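Morning run. Coffee first, then this:
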Amino acid sequence: MNIVRPLHLCCAVPVLAAIVVAAACSSSSSTGPNTGQNVRILTRFDSLRGTTADGQRASEFQSIAQILAEGAPLGAGLIKNGAVTGRFTMVAALLVDDVNGQPVDSQYTVIGYEGNAPDSVVLFNASSSGVFSIVSDHDGSVGTIGGTVALTPDAPGAACKSFLAQAPSDLDAPAPITCRLQTVTASFVTAVGTSADTLSLPNQRVSGIRIETAAAPAAP
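And here it is:
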């Protein structure tokens, strides 16, 4: 699965290790996606990634389509860019790698977009290797490695309703071992390139999914 995994990161984030092992004891309030809406939007974003020469923006579009295809609900939340706070449509996924049935690593991704085109797209990602963000619009994109993150997941909820069968055949979104709805209380703060501005996801509950996929064992 290509949910921003190819990027090489720095700056360890120990919080992700706890998420691999267990979720918080609180109950999940995630609700499932709307079938027609998910299929329509994931198909649109899969198509949009072929309309831009900006590789980072195309990666954001692809990740949105992949997360929706796995069965994530569409949510809404706040993202702050510098002094401006906006309300964005959001998708999110906690991707857990299993080796021989045991979780060994994970990454958490939240993506927000606004506008029908869309106009602005913001991606936050945290893994055991580090934190990074991408913010893009029609004029270009800025990716930044490094930042802070806090994540508190609810207990996983109901099984995802997969839309992989309805997804375009060129969308790289393999079938997971398991997929369940999960809400995560999340906050991110990153820089915006080399500027003095910050890009942040203020502390809030984000509806999403928990996906477990099979990973190859490490070489001896």
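Confidence is low (pLDDT under 50) at residues 4-29. Good start to the day.
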